[in-house]
Amino acid sequence: MATNHLLEIEQYGQSIWMDNLSRDIIQSGELENLVKNQGISGITSNPAIFEKAITGNAIYDADIEVGIREGLATYKIYEFLVFADIRNACDILRPVYEATNGLDGYVSIEVPPTIAHDTQATIAEARRYFQEIGRENVMIKIPGTQAGLPAVEQAIAEGINVNVTLLFAVQSYINAAWAYIRGLEKRVSEGRDISKIASVASFFLSRIDSNIDSKIDAKLQRGVDDINHEARLRAIKGKIAIANAKIAYQEYKKITSTDAWQALVAKGAKVQRLLWASTSTKDPSYNDVMYVNELIGKDTVNTLPPATIKACADHCDVANRLETGVDEAYNLIESLKEADINIDINTVMDELLVEGIDKFVQPFQSLMNSLEGKIKLLSPV
Asked: Domain with 32 in it: what CATH number?
């Protein structure tokens, strides 16, 4: 029988979550099989995933018709559909949640991406989602924007599990980690339990390489002075995202060694793990599991789309590499500043955050439009 390499990763302290959720995989038993037998210990979702799940899929029609009969607005019908899927997925993952004492077994759902820059609206929706879904093992996704981080802090203080999403820059991760810590400290100051609160910080990968690779390709297309210059540029392609993640993990280690964090550990706090997101390679010339192989390490999560799960089960090369090549990672990031490369990493990260929000807003709006069309089609004349 073929080895499932996903099952080997757990021994290194990393959990594998799946970046996909639909009613099909819940009802067919596929999700239960992935959880029980394939090493999947959590699920993440986002508007793009739900757009694919709901649009053109008749499996949701009966519930859409219920929403129509109850006179629900389009957005409320969307919630009716999605909250049901989230609850059912939470129930399937509940044994994992219990077996790991709340470390794993979570299902993530994002607050509407249209409110990414509105702190108070984000807090209100995170609170409402958590209450209405009504599962201990649901995790609310809040973007790590300037407006999102105060919402993260408040949600944690209120006992809501949070997946801080759309983190690209190392500093953004550091800010997210301290928002989590401040939220826990606030809760402790109010005399409330913090032992059941969980959080992950979703640090994005492949989009970084796609952005930087395109900048390098543009430089190469314009022409370079000599063969050494060309070689230096080519050597950077496909390397920055992993280097950036390894540096973020070093910051994670610094943060978890602080007195502030250790004081919370004494009160029962769970560590906020770094979660590697955007892990499917976009360039077909790259190894299809490179964002898995290179970032296996303790106290982390890797969230994989179904194709990457299949690929990793088949041919991941499992070893503890998260803390190998760290000096090279720092040097690689630093080399971007050199005159013959001249790529501003901060500008790249800012671009990616703006694009990242847009990549959630567009499918969300598309989903609302598609759902509106389906409601008209299914409504009685």
From this structure: 3.20.20.70
* pLDDT tens readout for residues 264-278: 999 999 999 999 999
Domain count, the chain: 1
Q: Give catalytic residues, as residue numbers.
A: 141
CB 85 within 8 A of CB 108: no
Residue 112 lies in a domain: yes
Range of the domain at 180: 6-205+249-323+353-378
| Within-domain flag for 339 | no
Q: What is the pLDDT of residues 229-262, one digit of tens each?
A: 888 899 999 999 999 999 999 999 999 999 999 9
User: Does a structural domain hold residue 174?
Assistant: yes
